Amino acid sequence: MPALGEGSNKIVLVMSTVDPDRVAALATRVIPRGIRYLDVPVSGTSDQVRRGDGVALIGGDAAVAEEVADVFEALFARRFLVGKIGDGGRAKLAVNLILGLNRLALAEGLVFAEKLGLDPAAFLDVAKGSASYSQVMETKGHKMVRGDFSPEAAPNRLSKTAA
Hints:
It is built from 7 helices and 5 strands. The protein is α/β, with parallel strands linked by helices and 163 residues long. Helix 5 (87-115) packs across helix 7 (135-146) and helix 6 packs antiparallel against helix 7. It is elongated. The chain starts with 10 loop residues before the first strand and ends in a 17-residue tail after the last helix. The model is unreliable at 157-163 (pLDDT under 50).
């Protein structure tokens, strides 16, 4: 019998950021065949994940997630069981919406501060210490001040037809 074939009872962790409905559809095909399955997209910049400071957004059976708790503890600073398979991806979409809006607000604030005659780098320190603080200031603020808009995320290598 193949290592991950029918009846293997192996646990598959889908940790890519992919269409949540496709992840759920794939689960409906493999779970009845004896493969246990969790939807676990990762929230955090590539650097945060490398440092072990990423966040797991887990969709699926809590008992299966508990079986691989040691793997999650080794990889992630925090983890959240957010619901059924597909809900991990749905939670990531919502988190990314907030993240994108935070990045937009930071960029606008830096430009506005500069237009007002403030030094953007110095203003970033002020913003970090104010009520407007967002983690985005730590992860992207200095890049914005430098005008460095190079991508950091690893490309998604999964085919759109995988699910």
